[in-house]
Write a structure and sequence with these properties.
alpha+beta; DNA-binding; 219 residues; homodimer; Arc Repressor Mutant, subunit A; Jelly Rolls; 2 domains; 4-stranded antiparallel beta sheet
Amino acid sequence: MGLCGSVDLDELSALSAIGRRRTLAVGQVLAWAGDDNLLCANVVSGILKVTVSTANGREQIVGLVFAGDFVGQLFTETSSMTVTALVDSDLCVYPRERFERVLTEVSAMERMLLQRTVASLNDARERMLTLGKRGAQERVAGFLLDLVDRTAMAAPDGSISIDVPVSRGDMADFLGLTIETVSRQMTRLKALGAVALARGGRTIVVKERAALEALANPD
Amino acid sequence: MGLCGSVDLDELSALSAIGRRRTLAVGQVLAWAGDDNLLCANVVSGILKVTVSTANGREQIVGLVFAGDFVGQLFTETSSMTVTALVDSDLCVYPRERFERVLTEVSAMERMLLQRTVASLNDARERMLTLGKRGAQERVAGFLLDLVDRTAMAAPDGSISIDVPVSRGDMADFLGLTIETVSRQMTRLKALGAVALARGGRTIVVKERAALEALANPD
DNA sequence: CGGTACGTTGATATCTCTCAAAGCAGGTGG
DNA sequence: CCACCTGCTTTGAGAGATATCAACGTACCG
């Protein structure tokens, strides 16, 4: 079944040695976002939901997990998602770190690819939260903050300036908005004194990071 | 750099043997959604966008790829995403199948996990399209169709009925909508004769799949 | 010095959300 | 067996946000 059906005997026994059967009732939580990431599991029967939340408590389901599916975030120390049973469910639960150790004897490259894929997946899911639940202002401010963290350049006077590498159209597409809405939000950020614009909007000077952060994560 | 920096010498040489350097100008496309999935690549410098599209041509960026990042959909025969250069970019391109063959000598289990993670990632990205670009009607109709394909049960009279495993609230959350909007869309589907509802909306009988499909993928 | 693509701004339309109330189904206890 | 209670779903009216359509401004490039 799922994970168990497609591995060979050695690996299977290594797995079953560390796995424990566990039942979850409707509404019961397997793992909380923010807690230490101690578990991963294979779903024997039932349905679970994986959710992420905004700071002010709005919640977005980023995945549904059915029988045979694997659930858990490998390679991360802290859970960023909450896993909850939607119906009474039966799991085969593994301690995450021991589970990862079982994978240890394979080539470094596949390991790395797996890690990258996992990272991308987490990324994608975080983005779903934005697309599903955030307003235009939060999306734009959040995007700028991400850019700052990735590509910040110290300007001569010490202020932080970023070089927006994409057109307004691409930004809008990425954020699930229209060009006009993005533009209006940029104007708004400028009006609020959070940023200054140059080079036809392609260069952005962050005047008040705190203000940006407040706009990206409102209450 | 990226992929190349964290593998050992044997693997690195195996990789460089099958990789070719390639330059992409702004706007040039590395891979088209719908084409045979022949390539994957490591980005040496530049920025690419990964996009998916609706049937009627609306487009959603589901990922940005920076220097050091890996781009490509392993383990799938056909690309479902288009990869385009946002600025002049430098890549190290690999034939996908040969790249996968290099990974062949590792344990079956890590391979499988990797495949699953990749599948989840693709899933997540497809969902982003829904969240970013589809209207309420498309989201709900599409959700029902996905359910049908996963959990269809033949009713006594031959019609297809599905047992919605989640509350309206969960459905709404998953789809990035509110409960009320989902409910109104369900009512609308019923009014159009596409479905019938029972058990307080928890059981759905698909009367006209074609109608549902038309609503999920409008022009 | 245009021209062209990109960005901004404005007015209006549309869609979804929000708030509120009523309908339904299932479970519980009398 | 019925009445009631509780949670979920549906329906309604109105507010709010973003999309759309259209015009104008502005950088960059030859």
